[in-house]
Every structure is written in structure tokens, then in C-alpha cells.
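Worked example

This section walks through a single chain of length 357. The input is the sequence exactly as stored; nothing has been trimmed or padded.
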Amino acid sequence: MASEYLWYIPNEARPGHRGDDVVDGHNSLDTLTAQAQAIEAHGWGGALLGAGWGRPDTFTVAAALAARTTTFKPLIAVRPGYWHPAHFAAAAATLDHLTGGRVLVNVVSGTDDLAAYGDDETDRARRYARTAEFLQLVRRLWTREHVTYHGGHFRVADSTLAVRNESRHPRLYFGGASEAAERVAALEADVQLFWGEPLDAVRARIERLRALADELGREHAPLEFGLRVTTLVRDTAAEAWAEAEQRIARMAAAAVTRDANWDSAVGQHRLQELAARGDVLDDNLFTAPARVGGSGAGSTWLVGSPADVARSLHRYRELGITHFVLSDTPYLPEIARQGRQLLPLLREPAAPGARLP
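Given that input, the structure is written out below as C-alpha cells.
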């Protein structure tokens, strides 16, 4: 199966996300378009756009960038408590139609500023049950006519989208490490995204999810797997590790402020616990960022020369990872650097030394 390589575009209200350059108009259409067009020019398939009440509306940004590009695929993060599934299904199907099939969707169940947009679902089990219904209903609306659905959270009657493509619809990506999240992924998602965990942990999760899909009677095509991780690449390993240590020192001195909900997810706790196993796991998975303010994809970094990082990513690919969402800051120059130095190595067959024992 061919692998997919995406980047990340910081859809943020405040400049300087994870050390990005602070510039005027950091979230203007021109600035974000420059990143999307650079992603196209340097060989990336598209980019993840994060969602959150404190950010500009993700779907609007994605639609604007899709209109200014030709191959760029936005991986649009959405929350079931923010969107009603029928409204979202119609919007995404329309954008997918207008872009010739370029829309990807990342469904997020983690807590946010719920009260700000009228959501009050704080119970984890109910939140994931709602997410499962969201995925079920969106998929049905994309592929069927006259859909009637009566769930515990969502209902529609005789619903048919005006624009849809029964033979092709956006891929549904999903993240989450809790037991409830894994059941949703095993049954309803197309791609399960992992954060940057060590190889042994990723291997165990893939095996567990595949077994769970069989146990629960998954009805869709086999679940695929993706990795969302920071990649700190320099010409040599020594340069990369020196930069990594300098960043850690700056983060520690600055007392980085995490998002208010940063520790509410099981997956984030897993990343925090990795530091107890050591600052460097496998060959070059750097866990120290989680101790000094890193969260999400910024909690662990793959550090090294282009060959070092490519070798590590090939190892994840051998485990079954076929979707990669990479990034580093400053975002715009790193799109180019890693597009030139890392992507060509990733698209080559793994070298013998990269194979798992």
C-alpha cells in the first residue's frame, strides 16, 4: 500500500505556535496560502488543520486553501459536539466535490471549551458513543439516499444529500488511546492516528486494534494506521541534537503554557509517561519535550539527520503505518527543508539497515 505524507498548518489565533516565527498576518489568507502552496511544491500530499474553539474556524480555512491550490489535501479536524453530522456531511461532500476529491477528515473527540459553543457532553463514555454515531451517520449520508437514523445522540429522517459521490467520499481519520476510543476506531474509522510513541507501543496498539476490529465485526475496509509526530531534521545528527537540546532549554526557561485541556486525554498521559523510560527511546525518539511544556504532537520528536529520521519512519511503516503527518517549526522553511531532504528518502524502499529485527 502506498504511503501518504502530510504536513501541518498552524490554524492558530496567536502567532508563534510551538516556536514558529512570529510575523504580522500569521493567520492571514496570504500567509496560510503560502504554506499550502509550498506543501504542494515540495511534494507533500496536504496538511492537517487543527480544530478548537480558540482557533479560526477550521473548515472555513480549509475551503479557502483548497480554492487556492490544485493538489493540496486539507485534513480537516472537526468535533462532533461542534457540528451536527448532517450539516457536516453536506459541507464536506460539497467541498470534496468542488475540489475533485481532495478532502480528508480528522474527527476529534477530546474535550474543548464546550460551553463556548453550546456543548455540554463531558462524560467520556457518552462522548465516544456520540462520536461513533457521528461517524456512522456521516458515512451513510455520503453513500446512501433517503437515510433515516435514530441514535441516542443524533437523528435524521429521509435525508439525502444534494451533492455526494457514492463511490468515493472523504477518508475518516480518528485519534484516541482510551478503551472507548479504540472501540470507535476499530468499528468506524478509516485511519487511526497515533502520536509519536515508541515502536513497541505502536506495534502493540496496531495488533490490539486489528484484533478488536475482528472481534467487534467491523464492516468497512480494513483499518489503516497513521503517525502524527514532530520531525527535527538537520544535515547531521550532531546538528539536530544540538538544536533539540537548545529548544528544550528555551522551553524550560520560558515555562511554556499548555492548553487548558492538555492532560485530559489518555494518549497525552501515555506521552507524559514515556519520559520515565528515558529521554531517548528507540534510536532517536526524544521524550524530553513532554516534561517542559510540549503537548500533543509536540510531546515527542524524532531527531536526527535526514537518513536517521527516514530510517525511524521506515520502521513505523514496517509495523503497518501508511499515513504520516509530520512537521517542525518554523513551519514554512521546514516544509521546504524536509521536502528536499526527508521526503525523497521516505519514498524509497527501506534500506536493509532500517528493517526491524
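What to look for: Confidence is low (pLDDT under 50) at residues 352-357.
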